[in-house]
Amino acid sequence: MIRLKDIHKSFGENHVLRGVSLDFENGKTHAIVGKSGCGKSVLLKIIVGLLTPERGSVEIDGVDISQISENELYEVRKKFGFLFQSAALFDSLTVAENIALPLTENEEYNFTKKEIEKIVAEKLELVNLSGTENLKPSELSGGMQKRVGLARALVTNPEYLLYDEPTTGLDPVMSDSIDNLISRLNETLGVTSILVTHDMFSVEKVAEFVSMIDEGEIRFSGKTRDFLNSNDEVIYNFIKRTKQAI
Ligand SMILES: Nc1ncnc2c1ncn2[C@@H]1O[C@H](COP(=O)(O)OP(=O)(O)O)[C@@H](O)[C@H]1O
Ligand SMILES: [Mg+2]
Question: Which one of 7, 15, 42, 238 would you pick to mutate in the ligand 1 pocket, going by the greatest count of ligand atoms within 8 A of its CB?
């Protein structure tokens, strides 16, 4: 389980997160929503230890990550797969090389070439892209690139999968296929997923729980159905605007 307690994060005068406490139960899919710039990506980066909050704690399976050494933090990070907002693939590398990167750039993994090939093929199958090993990212559609990014996030068999706006910039059909993939990975791998999105259709489709950040604080945290049916004016207007924007 991931437990955030009273997280505060500022950049200069910009007090982005002002006391965020949230629990992410294992095995579930949680959505994080809120206006652009409210701190969703910052929150994901705090969870994986890429950013440090000024106040508050992040507990991963009972371990407070601010209280551990670099080496221990490194071990904790291995539990995470992160699909960044931009797919962040290297154009000079093939699809297979991109996916294998977390394994090949890390001396700790001693896989043979054959073993890596097998792992890559396995992950490509999970994201429905079997056979694309030797293509370059530029030869793929935006949706396919996202799926390669996802295969790379899966390559170390993470327990927690973090998605930052995975459907942004994709057409509705591609968005739908990413949503299906997120649901399927949650079911077949039993991972815990945290999904940052502004896409209410995704929220409705894949998330069991929703948390909304507003003005640096948690405006809502609970079941998706209760969020979508909320009478809270701020939530209601947010959902309405978001749906109109699509
Ligand atoms: N590394 C950084 N340095 C300075 N300001 C940052 C940094 N990362 C994010 N911010 C600021 O924090 C706020 C929240 O950003 P972000 O979490 O990216 O928003 P979003 O909810 O759209 O993902 C924004 O005002 C952004 O400009
Ligand atoms: Mg963001």
Answer: 42
Helix (H) or strand (E) holding 193: strand 192-196
41 lines ligand 1 (CB under 6 A): yes
pLDDT digits 0-9 by tens, 29-65: 999 999 999 999 999 999 998 899 999 999 999 999 9
Q: Which residues contact 137 (CB under 8 A, 6 or more apart)?
A: 87, 89, 90, 91, 93, 95, 98, 145, 148
Packed helices 95-104 and 113-126: angle between N→C axes, nearest 10 degrees: 120
State the DSSP code for 68: S
Query: What integer is the mean pLDDT of 164-175?
Result: 89
Q: Give dist(CA 41, CA 232) in Å, integer.
A: 24
Phi first, then psi: give them for residue 223, nearest 5 degrees: -65, 145
pLDDT in tens, 68-105: 998 898 889 889 999 987 768 999 999 999 999 999 88
Is the model's pTM score more than 0.90? yes
Choose among 62, 61, 65, 40: nearest CA to 52: 65
Least Cα distance to 82 among 117, 45, 119 occurs for 45
Q: Is the CB of 42 under 6 A from ligand 1?
A: yes
Q: Which residues lie across from 210 on neighbouring strands?
A: 31, 222
51 Cβ neighbours under 8 A, 6+ residues apart: 9, 42, 45
What pLDDT is stored for residue 88 in this prediction?
A: 83
Sign of CA dihedral 95, 98, 104, 110: negative
Give pLDDT tens digits for 132-148: 999 999 999 988 999 99
